[in-house]
Amino acid sequence: MIVCGLAAWRGRDLERLSAGAYLAAWALSLVAFRAGTGETQWAIMVIDAALLAIFVGVALKTGRYWPLFSAAFQLLAVLTHIARALDAGVSGWAYQTAGIIWGYLAIAAIGYGSWTAPRRYAEIEAADPTDVPGATRR
Question: How far apart are CA 49 and CA 54, in angstroms?
Answer without folding.
Answer: 9
